[in-house]
Amino acid sequence: MHDMRQRNTDEERRRMVPDFFLKEDNVGVVVDDSPRTIGGGEEVIAEEDDAENSTRAVMSTSRRGGGGTGTAIKKSSSNDGFDNIDQHPSRERYRKPSIGGMTSLTESTRADDSNSASAILGGGNVWTRFMTRRQTLWDKLDASGGMDDDENEINDIDDIDDDGSSEGGTDSSWVGCKRAVRICGLSIWYEAMHFVRTIKAHPRILLISLATFALLCGLGIAVVVSGNRAHVQRQKNSAQLKARETAQWFADEFQRAMLPLYSIQQGVIYSGYFEDLPTNIGPYPNLVIPDDDPTTGDIRRNVTGICDNRDIVNKWRDIVVPVNAENNLDGIVVGYRLFPNNVACLTEPNGRESTPHFDAFDMPQGDSPIASDVIFGYDHGQSDNPMSRMITTDLFIYKKLNVFGPVSMAPMTELICGHLAIWKKPGFKDSSAKRRRGQRSLQYELNVDEALEAAMNDTVVGASCPSPNSLNIHGTCVEGAWGFVGNFLDWKKLKDRSDIYERFSKSNFDFRLSRVSGATMPGIDSAVLAESPLASLLDDTNSILVFTDTLHGTWQNRVGDISGWESPWYNAACVCVVLGSLLLGLLTASMLVERQNHRNLLYKIMPQKAIAKLSRGQTVAESFNIVTIFFCDIVGYTSMVGGMSPRQVMKMLNELYMELDILVTKHEVYKVETIGDAYMVVGGAPERVLAPLAAQRVSLFAIDAINFVKTFRTKDGDQLFIRAGLASGPAVAGVVGKAMPRYCFFGDTVNFASRMESTSKKMRIQCAEITCRLLQDSPDVNFHLTKRVEGDIVGVDVKGKGRQITYWIEGASHIAKKDATLPTFLPNFELEKHHDIESPKVSDSSGESLQEMFSSPDAYAAISAQDWKKLGHAESALVCATNDRKTMNFRARALLEHYLDRVIKKRDPDANITLSTRIQLFKFVDAVSQTYGHAKFHSYEHAIHVMTSMNTLLSFALTEDPLNSFSMVFSALIHDAGHTGMSNQNLRDTIHPLSKKFAKDVPIAERNSIDLGLSLLFRTEYQSLRDAIFSDEMDKIQFGKTLFQAILITDIATPENLQLSIRRHEACREALDPLTNDLNPCINYLSDIVDGLGLAQDVIERRPADFALTQDGLQHCVRNEHLMLLSDVAHLLQGWANFVKWNFRLYKELYDCFRGGMCLDPRLGWYDGQINFLDNYILPLAQRSKIYLREDFADALLNNGLTNRRIWMERGRLASDIISKAVADDEKEIDVLHKLYELPALE
């Protein structure tokens, strides 16, 4: 019956699902419709535990592949061992026989596909939505039966049958094309949205891309603009050059064309052939011909028989033709004309007679006869014609050459006329017409230039001229004027000869050549001499102006490009640059997005440090002293997934694990992996934190996970139940193998945590005993823990470990803000082979730190065991000298923690330093380290050296008090805090801000260090640390007095302070009584102690004895002062290596002050200064300190000082030279120290 019901159900569902979901390539999984219980009760769990445990090994294989992806094999409910599935013809070849009564996995998944189709049609819960589409990827997987990712997005396109035709009869190629286009479009849309989301999440990508675009665009535009400017300048230069060349060529041609006029002028004057012409023509109005048209203003003279005399004409030709030929003006100068008495008379060519040099038809025939037997000529000196008046006025009134045109005179259309005046000599005697022909009628006693100058000064205005040598020019008598000669230039031919049009067109220039000054006749001649067809488009924006002075006046040549000076490629280049920059910016953004996505993906797979090592080809393996591991799994998972398809299992687990992943981020723990239904989390690795903090984080995660699962429901409304277990202990993590690397954890703690989970109960959290202890040490969270007791049985049996006491984590309260994780320390190192004092080389590849490798007691023991003479030598990682701040912080904390522990145990032998106190102590040390600057000598490294030296001195001191010892080590840590590298005197001289903070007689640097240290200590975040140091008011007083005594005495540069210290020492030895107040080092700082330690203002009045100086107090004070002074200069009383190392650093600091103009050059007397310092301060200090230290150690101190003095006496000068040269040349310290260490020693 069940078989029939199943078949009917399948048939019904098959009719509801489109054929697409039943195709042979869409593999599905059978869905069992029978009701099921998910974690329904303890009975079910009990029954399933054995089956679950027996199959866990098999399931784990599939779980590593993604969690239940096909390993669940459902037993058939039919009698014959096969599921009854409709035998679709196209599916026959995929049918496989069952094995052992179980359905073939391929057949089972394919049959279940039909049952999953209804889920697709109805939508579903969401894992990852594709943009805004409502269907989930899991729904599409169910529908498509394992389609490719791209095909999953296009499930509304019909599949193509094997024969190439579509099911609906549509052409298969069109369907394929449509599918490809949609796949492409969806892919582009998805990539674009993913691109935008990544940029929103990482704004720096956008900033870098915009910066890249701006930089490239700016550079590109700058290059294009620069190239365009160069092009514009070249174009302008070219235009200017061509304009000047052209104008100059015309100017030269005009010069050459006008030269014949001067030759002809001289020929007329000196030949004597034409001396009678003015007389024969006579003055106005002789031989005047009445004008038929008086409006023209022209006056004509009848020159028949005068100007047509054949002999005169031939003489004229004999002068003109050779002159013209000599200047190569044939074709350019078309004719010449002579004007005696300013009357047109002789012309060459004459009439219509052409000659080898002139074409008569080119000559303007302005004078035409009235009758065939009458010759007339225009009288330009008397005519009112504007042209005549202009010519004669220029020649005789303004005394200059007259050139005008171009004008149109038939048969010429473009003609330029030139005219030159002919002058008589002063004293010229007019002869009668009867004088013999050939006799020279023009008698000159002076040269022509003198005659010209004289004539120019004899101009008389009047209607008639009284002198026979004067000529009436429009009513003005001009003395010495004879007439003028003129020529005619064919401007068109001159332009053709110049190739002006071709010259500019070849360069793609347009031009307009015009005249801006000179003789002109408005309406008769044209100002424009020549222009290109598009010259009207030229203006100031696209052309330049070039001016040239010629005989024709001043010419202006406007030359340019109507399209502008910019290069034709300028706009296109700008667009290309912008588009190219934009493209490169997008490519940069795309590259950064891909790189960021790649990095994000890698960081989700394994820790950043592991990835860095793998990328360098290194092995990833690191050990952790203590971590806390969390395991959980789903109760009844095996029976549950037996009735689900692999996709449904994956979908369910994904919904659950995504929420747990959110909790992982919230609690700052590390998700290791998911193995099927198992979920593994680690605290304290790979980012190292304190063990209680790691346990706290994992436990809070577990609590939140349980609370979430209580409200979690699957898509079908079913509830899940989980169980969880925690264990703490050491573990090793790393990557094993090369293919498919995974960051895994190994060790017994991993197995123990798994056992805690497997033996836990539904919806409960079981933890190991060590985890319970760590949770009890949690500084800011109160965990509710209950010991597991079932009847009379305490704990639980754990395979391989026996019975273990375990606890239930019931909850947590008073959750405060989590403390920040402590920073890591110096990684492992390699010791330098050259000298044992040198600092280690830091290796970034190590994941270990000193804190992780060693405890604070280990560090204290190593520091205390080191020989005084070799403090800082590289004997181990715990003691070697280094400038790594984290390593120095670790050592400082180890020393302070040791002495603070002694303070606490003196009060209560059973008490220990709490975790919160340790954390605050570490933070305080780190805060103090930040107050040290970049001084070469008074540095944080020197403070650590003083601390280690103080620690050794305290171990050899004759008397010792825990609080006093802690105070001395504390003082050594802060004694140079905030030091500027300048002495107190320098601070005062430079009016440093610190000098204004304290009184004049107060040691500035020392008081500033005290203020910095106390202000840090009394911050609110160090309350636990202060509670551990001070149990009552007396502790604060003792601590404050010791602090001020120890730090103020380090001002050894003040002689008074040093002498007072010696006086106190002597008073202590002599047991003076009574003691004077001036011996009390704190007498002037009592109010500062009260304020700095937060004491009540009346404490001095209430407890005067505690602040008064007693004999015991004086001995205590002097002891502290000497211990502090010895620690501060300990390098001088240790081995040569420490001596010379800190000597070099002190020199560098003083040299910086010298360069700042604050002190003398340290090179002056450095050698002698060290000897004086040893003799007058160091050795006496060591001698005085014998009464406070063990005898053998005190003798060793003194011997070390004497030995260093002997070495310095012999090798100090050489060492001084090495130091001074190294500082001046800015050599590396390590190289300088090598040289100093290699100096022969006397030891």
Strand content: 5-15%
What is the average per-residue confidence, as pLDDT, rounded to a whole number? 77
Largest sheet: 8 strands, mixed
As a percent range, the share of helical residues equals: 40-55%
- Tally the helices: what do you get? 39
The total of beta strands comes to 29
Could you say which structural class the secondary elements and strand pairing correspond to? alpha+beta
Q: Whole-number radius of gyration?
A: 58 Å
Uncertain segments are: 1-169, 366-372, 431-463, 816-848
How does the overall form come out from the CA principal axes? elongated
Cα distance, first to last residue? Answer: 106 Å
Describe the structure.
The protein has 1243 residues and is of the alpha+beta class. The chain contains 39 helices and 29 strands. Strands 16, 17, 18, 19, 20, 21, 22 and 27 form an 8-stranded mixed β-sheet that branches. The protein has a 5-stranded antiparallel β-sheet with strand order 4-3-11-7-6, with helices on both faces. A hairpin with a 2-residue loop joins strand 6 (402-409) and strand 7. Helix 17 (646-667) packs across helix 18 and helix 23 (885-907) runs parallel beside helix 25 (940-955). The chain is elongated. The two termini are 106 Å apart. Residues 1-169, 366-372, 431-463 and 816-848 have low confidence and may be disordered.
